[in-house]
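Whiteboard transcription, Tuesday session. T.W. wrote the structure tokens on the left side:
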């Protein structure tokens, strides 16, 4: 059950200090109301019966759709470099991007 007498101003001041923002009194009151509403949602969640529900990190079951790694044949240097615009010593030459 939500404690109606709980004062959120201490938490809001701490959060504002950590975020290094200045809040007006009106902004503090608005944030206190928002924080109260958010905590109210947690109260609603506490009422939900979750007995027998397996914990999960995602709503839908996720499956790995990637194939397994298998050792296979690879290209030789000549085949791998045949479409390279510039090459030297079996390496692709690329434009310089860092000074």
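and on the right, the sequence the group agreed on:
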């Amino acid at each position: 059950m939500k404690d109606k007498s709980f004062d959120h101003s201490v938490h809001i001041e701490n959060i504002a200090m950590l975020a290094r923002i200045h809040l007006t009194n009106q902004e503090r009151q608005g944030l206190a109301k928002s924080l109260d509403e958010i905590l109210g949602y947690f109260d609603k969640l506490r009422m939900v019966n979750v007995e027998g529900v397996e914990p999960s990190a995602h709503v839908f079951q996720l499956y790995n759709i990637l194939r397994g790694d298998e050792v296979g044949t690879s290209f030789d240097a000549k085949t791998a470099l045949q479409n390279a615009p510039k090459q030297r010593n079996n390496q692709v030459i690329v434009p310089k991007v860092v000074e």
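Someone added at the bottom: The first helix runs from residue 9 to 19.
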